[in-house]
Amino acid sequence: MNIANKLTVARIFLIPVFLIFLLVPMDLGHFTLGQANIPISQFISGIIFIIASFTDWLDGYYARKLHLVTNFGKFLDPLADKLLVMSAFVSFVGMNQMPAWMVIVILAREFAVTGLRLVAVEEGSVIAASKIAKWKTFSQMLAIILYLFSNVPFGLDHFPLHYIILWVAVLMTVISGFDYFYKNRDIIFKSK
């Protein structure tokens, strides 16, 4: 359990804390930025999400810099990302802030790639996150952060950056899913 893997585990433990502040009704007040009225509990959940997202970059940095790359980390890091991102996306659908079909596309890809990873493990391989998948994760996290902070400051000019980045995230999700299956098609075809 090296520092990189501890950061990944910490990210998993931050997920329920993030969800409590996002979903549990608590009257901590609101504040207004331009036309956005942001509940303080949602603002806190946004800060927690940013911290959890930062641990994603930090654990990768330490793993590469200190040569701490492990099969445990290759498996757990993308899983932690999926848990964090999927919990946020599902929450936003429940809050009627995101279109359900977009989140379904994202979830379908995540389940499909996780299934591919499980097949690879049975074949004795570990599929690490690709560069396209890292950009996909970044775009998803950026979209979530913009939604958590009510698209401030871009919403002040009525510029829907949060929605545009969500579209980018969906597109990157689909592209990275095809990329994983294409590059690992031999694992599927040789599996028993």
UniProtKB/TrEMBL annotation:
UniProt EC number: 2.7.8.5
Reaction catalysed by this enzyme: a CDP-1,2-diacyl-sn-glycerol + sn-glycerol 3-phosphate = a 1,2-diacyl-sn-glycero-3-phospho-(1'-sn-glycero-3'-phosphate) + CMP + H(+)
One term of GO molecular function: CDP-diacylglycerol-glycerol-3-phosphate 3-phosphatidyltransferase activity
Topological type in the membrane: Multi-pass membrane protein
Pfam families: CDP-OH_P_transf
Pathway participation: Phospholipid metabolism; phosphatidylglycerol biosynthesis; phosphatidylglycerol from CDP-diacylglycerol: step 1/2; Lipid metabolism
UniProt keyword terms in alphabetical order: Lipid biosynthesis, Lipid metabolism, Membrane, Phospholipid biosynthesis, Phospholipid metabolism, Transferase, Transmembrane, Transmembrane helix
Subcellular location(s) per record: Membrane
Transmembrane spans: 12-33, 39-58, 79-95, 161-182
Superkingdom as given in the UniProt entry: Bacteria
InterPro entries linked: CDP-alcohol_PTase-I, CDP-OH_P_trans, CDP-OH_PTrfase_TM_dom, CDP_ALCOHOL_P_TRANSF_CS, Phosphatidylglycerol_P_synth
Main location: membrane
Function: This protein catalyzes the committed step to the synthesis of the acidic phospholipids.
Family affiliation: Belongs to the CDP-alcohol phosphatidyltransferase class-I family.
Protein name: CDP-diacylglycerol--glycerol-3-phosphate 3-phosphatidyltransferase
Naturally occurring in which organism (per UniProt): Terrilactibacillus laevilacticus
Organismal lineage: Bacteria, Bacillati, Bacillota, Bacilli, Bacillales
Gene that encodes it: pgsA
